[in-house]
Amino acid sequence: MKLTRGRLLEFGFVLFMAVILVTSIIEGEWFDASVAGAGIVSGLIPFILEKTFKTEFDAKMKVAYILFLFASQYLGSIVGLYSNGWWDTFLHVLSGVFLAFLGFDFLSRLDEDIRLEMPKRFVFVYIVVFAMAGAALWEMYEFTSDLMLNTTMQGNGNDDTMVDLVAGSLGGIIAALLVTEIHRKEQRNKHKN
């Protein structure tokens, strides 16, 4: 196992959340303890996926993922920034951007000749749909959590869900514009050679 910067950041986040978990249990802060426990599991997901599928995610993707977890789980839930209405919307825009780049990472694993033959319009639509699907899956998770665990992740119900879906889609569109430009440059460079 190589200890790259991305891996060190992952394990650093997991250790940070483990300290919060222990501290929260000692202090009887059960909500913070549950968030920290979820943070430990979430922080280990890239490591588990890499070991299971014998692959390696892009280091920038891992850093973005851990920063997103820190912003949502620690700053949002434990510190309490979710009490500011804009924080949740801001994070959904960021999650749309993150999901778009994750979709691009999957696309970049295709054979180069096949990938570079794809029209940029297809790449744009694929990236936007990937981000929108991720946003929809997250909203299903929130709905299920509220229904089964009596949480309040959806806040104002339909209004919250729709704002989150629009914000995630907007983040996906913004990133898809950038990704499409990257794809166009790759195509142009291939045709020059």
Quick tags:
mainly alpha, 193 residues, globular, 84% helix
Question: Can you summarize this structure?
Answer:
The chain has 193 residues and is mostly helical. The protein contains seven helices and no strands.
**Poorly predicted ranges (pLDDT <50, ≥5 residues)?**
none
The fraction of residues assigned to DSSP E strands is: under 5%
N→C terminal distance: 37 Å
Residue-averaged pLDDT, rounded?
90
The total strand number stands at: 0
The percent of residues in helical segments reads over 70%
For the report, how would you describe the main beta sheet?
none
Question: How many alpha or pi helices?
Answer: 7
Identify the overall geometry. Answer: globular
> Which class best fits the helix and strand makeup?
mainly alpha
